[in-house]
Structures are given as C-alpha cells and as structure tokens.
Amino acid sequence: MIESENINVMREIRKVTVIAGTPVDTKMGVDFIKRKNTLAEEDAVLFDPRYCPVSEDCDAQIKFQYMDDDGKRAAMDALFDPEIEAGTRDFFIYCNSLSGAFGFDEYAMHKSAQTGEDIRIYTPLQVYRAMGKKHGRVGVMAANNLSAHGIEEAFMATNPDIYVVGTGNMGIVSAIEEGLSPKVIIRSFGLKEMAAYMRASGAEAIILGCTHFPYFKEELAEVTDLPLIDPADEMYKAMLERY
User: Is residue 115 over pLDDT 80?
Assistant: First the structure.
C-alpha cells in the first residue's frame, strides 16, 4: 500500500504490478515506485505497487529465461491473469534480462485483445530503443550475456550504427542478493577497471543493464566520470505520462 503521511487521500492512486526475476529485485522495484511516490508533484498520480516475482532465486530465473516460448507464456499467464482480474492495468518489468527473454510488447497486445482492457507493460528494452538515436557508443553492464544481447538489439533497432561495449556477469547479481556492500562489490568484481575499459573503448555512457545494479550506482559514480544511466527512471516517466 501507499506509505506516506503527506499524501492527500483525494489524489488518484493506480495499481501497478512490479514483475522481476527474483524476490530481491522485485522488492527493489516496489521500493523504487514508493520512492517516486514520495517525490511526486501534488497533482501527480500515485502508484500502489504490487509485488510479483517470477522465480524464487537467480538459478530458477536463469532456467526460466531459457525455457521454450510456450513455457514462458504459461508462466506469464499465471502471473498476469490474477493481477488483471484484481484490476491492475499497468505492469512494470523491473528486470532487464527478463525483458530481453520474453516478448512483452506483443504480450501486452495479446492480453489487451484477450481481456478487452488496455494492458500496458513498461520494460527497459522500450527505453533502450528510444535511447538508441541519442548515442553513438555506449557501455552496457548486464546480468548475463542473453541480457546484453537483448539490450544491444534494442539499441540497434533505432540506430544500426551504434557501437555497444557489453559485459554480462551473473556473479554480481548473486553478490547483491547475498547482501555484499556496494564498495566490496566494486572492488571484488573489478568494476572500476570495467568502467575504465568502457571509457577507453569510447563509450559515452554506461547503461546499468540490470535492475540490481543501481544498488552500487553511487559508489560506481565515484570511480568513473561516465554518466550512469538507469532505465527505470524513464520507464516510470512513460507510465506517469499515460495519466
């Protein structure tokens, strides 16, 4: 539920279901929406985030991403159908690798036609397609190489000439889920050196291509002068603009 003493009860509140790969990043997505509520202007719509993880842990999420299409569709139906029945029309995919492993744009059209409702799904890949024209060369830090591939495809959909310097490391995600501190993660996984490599390769910015990675965004900003881009901000903006 909405948790703020300063919220006017007369303001419009819309349900949004946060879907991510594991309980940890799903909670991160819920917390992200709640923070945005506290910063919202007085006349802005507020969102009541609903918690909806796909898998119980990182290993199960990886297995899901490599399921066949029928298996993924069945798993998504099991998540979406009860939420739609409960009145949710907005779905916030707070997971880069998940958004690259399933066709959410097509699925939104399918669910809208099936239910007769306007089902809206917001994903990081939508943001990357929009960003493609703004950059000539970017660095991408992803959770795995399937995700890095999906992000590169999204950029190239609008800018075939873009140059992507990408990495994928599921170990970083596991370290975040285990609760290692941001400074330890930066040091243990060589992220300062990774950022330097991307900079030396001509990257204009680093995409935090995993919704776990804002966990260490502030610490990473201390060791690189490249802009760090979190797609969740643009996803939220797109959702807010619908109202």
Answer: yes
CA-CA distance, 234 to 91, in Å (whole number)? Answer: 14
Whether 125-230 and 13-123+232-241 are alike in CATH topology: the answer is yes
Domain regions of the chain by residue span: 13-123+232-241, 125-230
Whole-angstrom Cα distance, residue 76 to residue 102? 9
13-123+232-241 topology per CATH:
Rossmann fold (3.40.50)
Q: Which of 12, 23, 3, 197 is nearest to 94 (CA)?
A: 23
pLDDT tens readout for residues 163-176? 999 999 999 999 99
Residue type, 103: G
Computed over every residue of the chain, the mean pLDDT equals 91
Nearest of 25, 43, 35 to residue 4 by alpha carbon? 35
Phi-psi domain of 73 (left: phi exceeds 0; alpha: psi -120 through 50; beta: other): alpha
Q: Where are the alpha helices (DSSP H) in the chain?
A: 23-39, 58-65, 69-85, 96-101, 104-115, 124-131, 145-158, 170-177, 182-188, 191-200, 217-221, 231-241
* Helices 124-131 and 145-158, packing angle to 10 deg: 40
Class at the top of the CATH hierarchy for domain 125-230: alpha beta
Q: Exposure of 127 by Cβ count < 10 A (0-12 exposed, 13-18 middle, 19+ buried)?
A: buried
pLDDT at residue 7, rounded to an integer: 47
pLDDT tens digits for range 15-61: 999 999 889 999 999 999 999 999 888 878 899 999 999 998 888 88
